[in-house]
Design a protein that fits this description.
Layout (H helix, E strand, L loop, with lengths): L5 E6 L11 E6 L4 H14 L3 E3 L6 E3 L4 E6 L8 E4 L2 E5 L4 H10 L2 E2 L11 H7 L2 E2 L2 E2 L4 E8 L2 E5 L1 H4 L13 E8 L1 E2 L2 H18 L20 H7 L6 E2 L2 E3 L7 E3 L5 H19 L8 E3 L9
Parallel strand pairs: 2-5, 3-5, 4-18
Antiparallel strand pairs: 1-2, 6-7, 7-13, 8-14, 9-10, 11-12, 11-13, 15-16, 16-17
The structure holds flavin-adenine dinucleotide.
Amino acid sequence: MSSIAIEEGVLLSRYTTIGTGGPARWFAQPRTLAELEEALRFAGERGLAVATVGLGSNLLAADAGVDALVLRLAGELAEAGVSDALLVAGGGAANAVCLHRARAAGLGGFEFACAIPGTAGGGVWMNAGAYGRDWSAILVRALVATADGMGWLSPAELGLSYRHSGLGHGQVVARVEYGLQPRAVEEIKAEVAELVALRKATQPTNKRTFGSVFKNPPGDHGAGRLLELSGMKGHRSGGAVVSPKHANFVENAGGATTADCLAVMAEGRRRVLEQHCVELEHEVVLLGDIELPAVR
Ligand SMILES: Cc1cc2nc3c(=O)[nH]c(=O)nc-3n(C[C@H](O)[C@H](O)[C@H](O)COP(=O)(O)OP(=O)(O)OC[C@H]3O[C@@H](n4cnc5c(N)ncnc54)[C@H](O)[C@@H]3O)c2cc1C
């Protein structure tokens, strides 16, 4: 008798910050390691692919749906607490919760993540980062679960590099440990306020987006600047529009679909290659049977 609810056909648009995405074939929200194991067993017995969503803040899910068991960690797998100088977080714990716990305990080092609206697990998968720091700078280890069992992996074993880890779908980050340093609460608050203000000034923080569309390529110009120089600001397809504030963001201006987002991304990539000879690589994770058209 299953103790975890596993539903059919749950719309992923409810779980992505851009608000697009079709149904997951199966969907479950494990709250404990035992429930996570149960969900992974369910998938294993049926030969189903597994994918995990965090806050869906760097995710585009196919409009036609995702043929997998999609997991979203909840309950104790979305909580965080401090133990000695370690911040221990469930893979589904929001960065905002982690920052709050760290600040309350007088621990600094996580401030850079204040404007990254994701989870611990999403941070590991993406090696998320900002202002010169990323997950690899604070992560001590991560507990990774698969259908075959679970074990702790170090940052080196996770293969963290610029907005990349070696993790694959089917590997679920269930828990993480962050190593932080004592810091005065007032200093933490001041740095966070400064970084949040900087964000508001430069990015469309009050719109539905999925964060950075493309990774910054090597060279003098970031992806946003190349897209801006290519005339992409304000470019629209259906309900998706390239942010007039920052060209490496796509906004849902109302009724956008994942196909709309992919269409503006494809146009941006095409123009940047044509005008600047740079082939942009998408940072946003594509879930389901979707891809960007080849530009060469
Ligand atoms: C306004 C805005 C600003 C942003 N700013 C930044 C920024 O400054 N820097 C930056 O790096 N990113 C930024 N992002 C992107 C995004 O917030 C980060 O990539 C974040 O780490 C994604 O976390 P998530 O939990 O939302 O993951 P999701 O978007 O849900 O998923 C991303 C990937 O992680 C995987 N994943 C999620 N949780 C788990 C888990 N528990 N186990 C295994 N795999 C998992 C998913 O399968 C997917 O492959 C921004 C996004 C927005 C909307």
